[in-house]
Amino acid sequence: MLNDRLPPFVRENYFCGEWHHASAVMAGDHPNEWSDLMNALSIFRLKKSYIAAGGGRKTKLADDFDALFMSKGWKEKKFDTRVAVDDQEYDTPTHKIDMYKNGVAIELEWNNKTEFYDRDLNNFRLLYHLRTVNVGVVVTRADELQEIFNDLGRGSSYGPSTTILSKLVAKVEGGGAGGCPVLTFGIRKSLYRENE
Q: What 8-state DSSP symbol labels residue 6?
């Protein structure tokens, strides 16, 4: 059903996946957020300068990607979560979400260690259980981008132990997000722009 809901551009330029009927939840319960997501994925392009730039706290790619959502009212969000059992209260800390709006959580994982996927999926699982996140979305790089990194002499900076789509899919299919509906989008080579 996911392919039927995707605009042709998104279907052709991302490797797209869903678990637990995530696109049905988005289209039915969060049509505005679905529209925002499809619009952002349609506008985004992978610029050569994003790849050539060195690492740091937050990349220009991440800043530009987040800006596509912030203009529509999305925000970075950190939840203060705890569980109460009788008279005892236990903190259940979660990590901040890159972009959040109305029950939809979006994470961009570009070039981090694969453990960041575990963190994101566990966050989705916990916040779904606490009825705060209805759908989790992860946008990451498709494995095929390694060819571009190698051609630009940056291949060693984007190694096999970093965040790539095949590692994410394995973790989602292994139950990393629990019952939380999840959408994944892997950025394909067709989005690469040599001349910006």
A: S
Beta bridge partners of 104: 101, 135
> CA-based Rg of the chain, rounded to a whole angstrom?
17
CB 50 within 8 A of CB 61: yes
Side-chain-side CA neighbours of 66 within 13 Å: the count stands at: 17
> What torsion do the CA atoms of 176, 169, 1, 31 make, to the nearest 10 degrees?
60
The whole-angstrom separation of Cα 150 and Cα 95 is 32
Model confidence pLDDT, tens digit, residues 51-72: 876 655 678 888 899 999 999 9
- Choose among 147, 124, 141, 128: nearest CA to 185: 141
pTM for the full predicted model: 0.91
